[in-house]
Amino acid sequence: MQSDATDIYEQVLQKCSKDEQQQLKLYKGRWYQALKNSATDASAVHVEAKCKKSYEDLLESLYAKYFKSGKSFSSGTEAVDFLKSKDYKIGKSKFYNDMKTGLVKKVSGKFFEDDLLEYAKNNLQRNTIEGNESGLQEQILIEDLALKRLKREREEFEKELQEERYVNKDDVRQMLAMRASVFKQDMISVVDDSVPELVKIVGGDPDRIPGAIKFLKEQVYETMRRYAEGKIYFDAKVVEEVEAS
Known about the structure:
Blueprint: H1 2-15, H2 18-38, H3 45-67, E1 72-73, H4 76-85, H5 92-100, E2 111-112, H6 113-123, H7 129-133, H8 135-162, H9 169-202, H10 209-228, H11 236-244
Antiparallel strand pairs: 1-2
């Protein structure tokens, strides 16, 4: 269950607005701090429970906003009653058994209408002939919910494009190619300028300067080739330091 909650948290962070992200992280941080305090202070347990509920309620509402369509139900009894109202053969024992095997989805403590209808379509039978005939209408409802979800996701994607949360892949590639070209040229310049001075410092033979330059340039070309093939990776800390400078 904890793993599912973590997955949902990451999904929601990718979809929600910046303000919602900050609020969700704040609530989660408060809960974790309260959980830590409750480990050494029994009187803080009720605070931890309150913080946890606030966090889960927010996570649930955001998940429903961005990923779910239709109604939601808090208990298995409500979910079973809903399925029965749609003329499906279902009892509490079967419902809870199917929950244990993963056939029934429960998200942040809620059963969502589109998940229940999908479960019923694939795993349950109708009570009556009329009920079976109404399956077409049920399918239309399921498809309508799916279309609404796709529409909402499209709207959210367009909103994220306007907020510049995505960048054009070709632009990034062009930028990286330009930076690589500048990097290579700078390295070549360093070699050209440094080798004569290096030879002087070590008291070497000036006639061997061209050979030394050629050798170091080959090393630069080889290093650039390895970068291009993805065999060298930047350390995140080094990148941050370079960008800062």
